[in-house]
Amino acid sequence: MRGRFAPTPSGLMHIGNARTALLAWLQARSAGGAFVMRMEDVDLTRSRTELAEQALADLRWLGLDWDEGPDVGGAYAPYTQSERIGMYEEALAALERSGRLYECYCSRAELAAVASAPHGLGSEGPAYPGTCRLLTPQQRAERRSLKMPSLRFAVDAAESVRFDDLAAGPQTFPPAAGGDFVVKRADGMISYQLAVVVDDAAMGITDVLRGEDLLDSTPRQLQLYEALGWAPPRFAHVPLMYGSDGKRLAKRHGALSLAALRGSGIAPEKVVGWLAAVSGLIGKFEPVRASELAGHFRIDRVTKEDILITDDLLNRLVE
Ligand code: GLU
Predict the structure, then answer these.
(1) Which of 1, 101, 125, 228 could bridge 33 with an S-S bond, Cβ 3.0-4.6 Å?
(2) Of the residues 184, 251, 284, 304, which is catalytic?
(3) What contacts 144, CB < 8 A, 6 or more positions away?
(4) Does the CB atom of residue 210 touch ligand 1 within 6 A?
(5) Domain-by-domain residue ranges, the chain?
(6) How far apart (Å, rounded) are the C-alpha atoms in residues 285 and 277?
């Protein structure tokens, strides 16, 4: 069993990221498995080295550890996506050989929706209609002389995608949900969808536990696994945490960053205990070390509802 946590270093780790990391770590540790840390900085315009370092320091402060990662190395190094571009290019070449890629010349505005941020199909708007799939060789040559194309993966439009999610339950996505998707942008950036599949496969990851915002990215990733001839991991998508304003935790909830909580002098055991309690893993709010939880973890015990951090709930953490 090999689990992983794969943060994007574009902001400070917040308490919601910490919860996902803790659950992924517990899933691996409770099964006696290995835990891998991977830095997903494939979008260099959004990622910052200081934030990558801060994320690792914050997660260690929380009591998590990893057998392989950017700072400790390991058999599948490097563990930083910006150093793995060669592997993504090899996968693109394999997809190209099997006829699954095509050049797309749609405008930047049309493509804004498929930007790097892995926020799932839901945030993308209407499915890509396949405009450039039907270009004739001559039209393609004309457009190529004017601008650089992005590369799209042609999804299988005949089959629904089904999988059993260990946390979210059985899933069925309609054929070609979201349409053909970008695997390499016109500016050369590799997409999250491709990088994450190449990395999880190459690193022998057997279990992916991550936030529910990525549930609807999974059918795309499963299609990539299939096209590349690789066995997919098991997936568990856990509910997200929301601020008292009802919005998904983000930079604006600065007080809920691990760095701020740490800075306020709160003990890491208190944070872990609070996370375990709101996740349904322990019965009351009490300080606990991550290592003490590993023996008791069961994925089916983790609360299935989104967690709204009301002021009351927050007081339990910071009082
Ligand atoms: N890097 C992604 C994020 O920070 C997570 C990717 C994944 O777990 O598949 O949202």
Answers:
(1) 1
(2) 251
(3) 103, 105
(4) yes
(5) 85-192
(6) 6
Q: Is the pTM of the predicted complex or chain greater than 0.90?
A: yes
Q: Which residues contact 296 (CB under 8 A, 6 or more apart)?
A: 30, 281, 282
* Cis-peptide, bond into residue 78, ω within 30° of zero: yes
Report domain 85-192's class. Answer: alpha beta
Task: Name the H helices within 63-134.
Answer: 85-97, 108-112
d(CA 97, CA 136): 19
The CA distance from 60 to 296, in Å, is: 21
20 Cβ inside 6 Å of ligand 1: no
251 is catalytic: yes
CA distance 282 to 284: 6
φ, ψ of residue 38 in degrees (nearest 5):
-135, 135
Q: Encode the chain (319 residues) as per-residue pLDDT tens digits.
A: 999 999 999 999 999 999 999 999 999 999 999 999 999 999 999 999 999 999 999 999 999 999 999 999 999 999 999 999 999 999 999 999 999 999 999 876 665 555 444 445 665 666 788 889 999 999 999 999 999 999 999 998 888 999 999 999 999 998 888 889 999 999 999 999 999 999 999 999 999 999 999 999 999 999 999 999 999 999 999 999 999 888 988 777 887 999 999 999 999 999 999 999 999 999 999 999 999 999 889 999 999 999 999 999 999 998 8
**Dist CA 34 CA 4 (whole Å):** 8
Q: How far is the CA of 306 from the centre of ligand 1 (A)?
A: 18
Give the containing element (helix H, strand E) for 4.
Answer: strand 2-5
- Cβ of 276 less than 6 Å from ligand 1: no
Alpha-carbon gap, residue 230 to 247, rounded angstroms: 37
The token pair at 143 is 């457009």
